[in-house]
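Morning, I've got a small favour to ask if you have a moment. I've been staring at a protein lately and its backbone has me curious. You're getting the sequence in one-letter code plus the fold written as tokens. I've dropped the whole record in just underneath, so have a look:
=====
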Amino acid sequence: MNRNMLRAAVCALSITSAALAANPPSPVPSQQLLDDAALRIPEADMPPIPAAWRNDVLARRHAIRSLFSDDFSDLQFLKPLLAGKRIVQLGEASHGVAESSWAKVRLIKFLHQEMGFDVVAFEGAFDQCFDANKEIGTLAPHDVMNHCMFWTWRTNEVSTLFEYMAAARKTARPLTLAGFDIQISGSVVDKTRLRAMLAIADAALASRLDDFEKEVGAGKLLTAQRGASAQAFYEDVARALGAQRAALRKAGYVPMDIDVEIQAAHARGRLARMNEHLDVPNSKDGNTVRDAAMAEQLDFLLDSLYPQHKVIVWAHNMHVSNAPAAGDFPSMGELLAQRRREEMYTVGFYMGHGMANNGAPNPTQVFAPPPDTVEGVLANGGMKYAFVDFSKAAPAASTSWFTAENTVREFGVWPKRIVPARSFDAIFYTDAVTPSGKYW
């Protein structure tokens, strides 16, 4: 999600402390699987919808009986759905929902332990996440996250994933961290390795690196002319590293590190293009550049860096969507689907009501879903946590809530018109949500 877009949403929707009293209670971590009675949504809380839609969602939904448990018996239905899939994309309507992060961490554990997925690719900087992966098991999870994650995910809930990755690092089946964003996500930008490589590959380029990093890496608005100059510079960097691969190998650099720096240079060039549009908050042009570049980064991860691995993608719904909302920019998921649709399974995450925290001092309120929304239908599934698959469903009157155009609420408040079955293979619904717990 674009950072300017996120901050604008938070500022526009912050609420008073009085409204916080209505905040639903946060789930208590437990290994227990919940029964139907504990998961049931009261009838009075279900928006009125056509009976055919309600019958369809009731027949289609799978109860998710825990956000925490290592007993995955309630997730076994996923195995036939994901058979033959190499890429599972996990979205989120808002970056600051505790329940969504807990659910995704549990799904990742299941996919890792029982389905052979072993790479988690975050909406985080490609090169920073590559380096942070080397720190897992050596540095504390807090520090690893600080080095590679956007502030929106430096939370107590996501930290449990990094703790799990550290534990898995000591086994025969490690879980690898990766990133695919072109934006800077970690707290520190370290170009020491690139400078050293350029000193070998092309000293003239090395002498110019800091000037471009101060503009492009720092996220400054660029004119079209300066943006073009920056793009040309970083493409020259990529070519120089490729041309001097033998010399870099002789100097002790391993092939993977060289490949990563070449790809990171391509990413910096894309970031320069994106930075030409920073004068327009949430620019469609800027997002178009970013999502196309993120799709390129994921292709590199899948084809070059981890070609024999199964990958879990963690990003906002609008990035993983296989078909964007009406009027939105072409999404990363859409571009990937053009090349890899048979390999992919994409899960959108949506919520009913409660509070969400996107890093602002005050959480924002998510009001109960109206009946004419996808979330309103999902609430009629009757379960507080539910997984609804429609990957193989055909259009019909009873399925028109997801096979025809309908409204979803990104960040719980922004209405978007999508055809859910085109955008996602399934939706994970959480009825009541609470804010993420922040490290800082």
Q: What stands out?
A: The first helix runs from residue 3 to 13. The first strand starts at residue 61 and ends at 63.
